[in-house]
Design a protein that fits this description.
Structural class: alpha+beta
Strand order of the largest sheet: 6-7-8-5-9
Number of helices: 12
Distance between the termini: 78 Å
Helix content: 25-40%
Largest sheet: 5 strands, antiparallel
Mean pLDDT: 90
Shape: globular
Low-confidence stretches: 88-92
Order of helices and strands: HHHHHHEEEEHHEEEHEHEHEH
Length: 351
């Protein structure tokens, strides 16, 4: 009944950002937050809905409230527009992945770049603006692997915000201070293999999410071999279990064997699994998931403003405008275009 009352809730039209939790409770009530939105957000962002920015994660719902006065009415109108325009159904399958895993993307990119243009396996220690030669618009120096250096016309820093902050600190303390404001959470993925005969659940879905109120150790589970072909041999199933995040910081202190045991225990109880897994693999992602707090967009705008004062410097990554791979690719493409535009203004020195 509370969810059905959403169209009659007064709209908040001040244009200010708010947390996902505040928005959902205000428009739909606590039960929808606890039983639907919180577990979904926890599975995607490993975040706390009480501080997660709505404008930076689900801006569409903010826009619907502003335009239609109701999320329900906005969804209904957008659905009618799709049906009348003939736009229905998915353009691609619901889930897609590279056959050889995500590493395929990196190896293919490396294969497209001339070998002399790459420095692989290097750790950058510092970047510094240097005196700009005649006819150039920008110039930088990059120090890496302790005693090596390369001069560059432009630098694109793509990585976690806190690491970017360390690189810019020597020449822009204010920019570094803005970058370190973005907090990151750590997470764990446990891969578990089972025989299908040992699982009573039909696995007639792609996975599940776990509400925080269930007081379990896991955030979500994915039926990997159901979602993607070739992930498990016939008669077997591969499950991926997600743990950690901003609300489960203490779990990261457990060793791999205890994390695997915890994942198996919770999954076995939910899916009716008898017997131990055939194998388990634990992967840790330390400080890998940015937490977009309320007013995150204002913080990103300030970072962009400060970075623009350094010609030839671009800072991008999942800590700014989207945590997903497509978001990061888009940011990289835009950064490349800005760099090329900057270099296009440079004139070669006269001979």
């Amino acid at each position: 009944l509370r969810i059905a009352a959403e169209p009659f809730i007064r709209a908040k039209l001040d244009g200010q950002d708010e947390s996902v939790g505040s928005f959902v409770v205000r428009r739909f009530g606590h039960e929808m937050l606890d039983r639907l939105v919180q577990p979904l957000v926890g599975g995607i962002y490993t975040a706390d809905t009480d501080v997660l920015s709505l404008g930076s994660t689900f801006p569409r719902f903010l826009e619907m409230e502003a335009r239609h006065g109701s999320v329900t009415r906005g969804l209904a109108k957008s659905g009618r527009r799709r049906s009348t325009s003939g736009q229905s159904g998915a353009r691609y399958s619901l889930f897609m992945a590279l056959h050889g895993g995500m590493e395929t993307l990196v190896t293919q990119i490396v294969g497209q770049i001339p070998r002399q243009s790459l420095r692989l396996g290097c750790r950058v220690q510092a970047i510094h603006p240097r005196p700009v030669p005649a006819g150039r618009s920008c110039a930088w120096s990059v120090a890496y692997n302790r005693d090596q250096k390369i001069d560059a016309d432009a630098v694109v820093v793509c990585g976690p915000s806190h690491l970017a902050a360390q690189l810019v600190e020597p020449f822009d303390h204010g920019l570094a201070g803005e970058l370190v404001k973005t907090r990151y959470a750590s997470s764990v993925v446990v891969n578990l293999g089972y025989r299908c005969d040992n699982i009573s659940h039909p696995l007639d879905a792609f996975g599940f999410v776990v509400p925080r109120k269930e007081n379990m150790g896991i955030l979500a589970g994915s039926f990997s071999s159901v979602k993607f072909e070739g992930r498990a041999p016939r008669g077997h199933v591969l499950l991926r279990v997600f743990l950690g995040g901003v609300l489960q910081v203490g779990l990261l202190e457990l060793d791999d064997s205890r994390l695997a045991a915890l994942a198996h225990k919770d999954v076995a109880g939910l899916l009716g699994i008898s017997g131990p897994p055939l194998f388990s693999m634990v992967h840790r992602y330390d400080q890998a998931m940015p937490q977009y707090r309320v007013d995150h967009r204002k913080a990103v705008a300030e970072i962009s403003r400060r970075a623009e004062t350094h010609t030839g410097l671009e800072i991008v990554g999942n800590g700014f405008e989207g945590v997903g791979l497509p978001d990061c690719i888009r940011q990289g493409q835009l950064a490349a275009r800005r760099v090329m535009a900057c270099l296009a203004t440079s004139k070669p020195p006269a001979i």
